[in-house]
Specification:
Layout lengths: L5 H12 L16 H13 L5 H8 L3 H4 L11 E2 L5 H21 L23 E5 L2 E7 L13 E5 L18 H12 L6 H5 L15 H13 L5 H5 L12 H19 L5 H15 L9 H4 L8
Parallel strand pairs: 1-2
Antiparallel strand pairs: 2-3, 3-4
Helix pairs in contact: 3-5, 5-6, 8-10, 8-11
Length: about 300
């Protein structure tokens, strides 16, 4: 199992240092605002990469696309239980992007109209992924309407083996550490990374990216988890649609306002007495901690120096 490489963490940490007001910085102070938070999450995920073995494991989930004789059997499952949370997100990223790439190359004549509709058996994802995670068995299908106006290429259908579907309608019997809940919220992150290859290559809407790709839902989840664990906010206010801190349903403005309120609450409860520089380091540490990135100890005078790095 591979952990985040020293070099990638090094680059993200140096990027943070280059955006503070301390004497070591190579640029002037940049405000710790919404743009910074979005860029922090973007660089965090871009700085993590699966090992070759992990990518080979992910290939099992898409092999049906390339060879119809190699479909995963119903009892064959990819085990997530040994994986860190960040590895699960990157695995999901890898699988969904492979599906979109194949969707584009396999239907050059009319790529926009290729849909994976899992309510119509004749159009379902040809390579659904069977997963086992901490005792939870489920299947993930790409569930994508391929018309020209579609804006969320990361849409999926998440089916639990007991058919008890999770819902954002209420938080009854929901806990953030439940395996199914953890998986669903990791899927919510990964789906924002999806790129519709045919749209990107044909200058389509949003250049093929997801409509909500710039919403830092990973950071939002990490902040919410800490606040809920400390009793500072109620789980229902984060989980339930239309509630104050809910990030996963509704219009874009609604989700942005929810993230803004969540961040304001986190600042109030966890970062009140910190400088902007300390807040930036705290937020990166929060991402590293929640998503289980194993960061090697780096001497201060090493990771604040950006002279040899282009960030």
């Amino acid at each position: 199992m591979e952990v985040a490489s020293f070099g990638n963490v090094y680059i993200v940490r140096n990027w943070i240092r280059s955006h503070c007001a301390c004497g070591y910085c190579t640029t002037k102070n940049v405000k710790l605002d919404r743009d910074f938070l979005g860029e922090l999450e973007k660089r965090f995920w871009e700085g993590l990469e699966l090992s070759l073995n992990a990518k080979m494991e992910a290939e099992k989930a898409v092999r049906k696309i390339f060879d119809p004789q190699l479909k995963m059997g119903p009892s064959e499952r990819i085990v997530f239980s040994h994986m860190k949370k960040w590895e699960i997100v990157k695995h999901l990223d890898y699988v969904q992007q492979k599906k979109h790439d194949a969707r584009y190359t396999s239907n050059q004549a009319n790529p926009y109209k290729t849909s994976f509709d899992n309510y119509d058996p004749s159009k379902g994802d040809p390579s659904p992924e069977n997963i086992h995670y901490k005792g939870e068995a489920c299947t993930i299908y790409l569930n994508y309407d391929g018309n020209t106006k579609t804006e969320q290429p990361g849409n999926v259908y998440f089916k639990r083996i007991d058919n008890k579907q999770l819902s954002y309608d209420n938080a009854d019997k929901i806990k953030l550490d439940m395996p199914g809940v953890e998986l669903l919220l990791l899927i919510e992150i990964s789906r924002r990374h999806a790129i519709d290859t045919c749209r990107r290559n044909n200058n389509g809407p949003l250049n093929g990216s997801d409509k909500f790709c710039d919403l830092p839902v990973g950071l939002g989840l990490a902040m919410a988890n800490e606040l809920i664990s400390a009793g500072k906010i109620d789980l229902s206010d984060f989980w339930t649609k239309n509630k104050m801190y809910h990030l996963y349903t509704g219009l874009k403005d609604q989700r942005e306002k929810a993230f803004e309120k969540l961040y304001e609450k986190f600042q109030e409860c966890e970062m009140r007495d910190l400088s902007d520089t300390e807040k930036k380091i705290r937020l990166l540490g929060l991402l590293e901690s929640y998503f289980e990135v194993e960061v090697k100890q780096v001497e201060e005078d090493l990771w604040i120096s950006t002279a040899q790095l282009s960030v």
